[in-house]
Amino acid sequence: MFDVAFRHQQALDPSALTTIPTTIHAIEKAIEDCRHAGLDANSDPAVVLLARHLAAICATRPADTVLRGTCADRIAALRRFPPLLALAVRGVAYDAVAKERFHIDGRKALRRLAAALDLPDRGYDLHSLPGEVSVAGEIVLRTPTIHLELTIGRLREGRELLYRRAGTTRDPAGPRNHYAAMREVVHPDRLAARIRRDLDLAAVPALPALLSA
Question: How far is CA 101 from CA 70, 96, 108, in A?
Fold first, then answer.
């Protein structure tokens, strides 16, 4: 059996552990040591003492009612400022977790926009193009009539959504691109009205029974 004394020493004198993150890290390492030693972390004296030390640190924080109120306020603020807006500002290049969040939330945003445009479920093609690790990639929604493309990054700051007519056009240069900022994307009803106006759409025909990717 492999065991080490360090976690016991930390548990006997946890004075260096003064914050929640450092104490949680010590508990995680102690649990890992128990796993390596084949011991039950639930009954390991060092793990229990470190957990009690964490409780002592938390006891100096505000009361539960105050913390619950703050959590509710944070939730309300996040609803007013969705993660997509924060991602559009900070970018996601080389951050795999943030990039995944952008594609998940971006697809949801385009689905809401599709509903605001009165596109039937499964009546459009929606897919992600992740691209290289250095870029955010794109999320594309298309029907025979419209093309929507959502991305983030410095080159598209303030113009995160590209939208245009799809299919044939009389303009030899092709359909004109229009842009909308991410702050407009999170308000799909207003943006849908603008898209209809800019693209001169009376009714948007949908692709027949396409599965959203």
Answer: 24, 9, 11
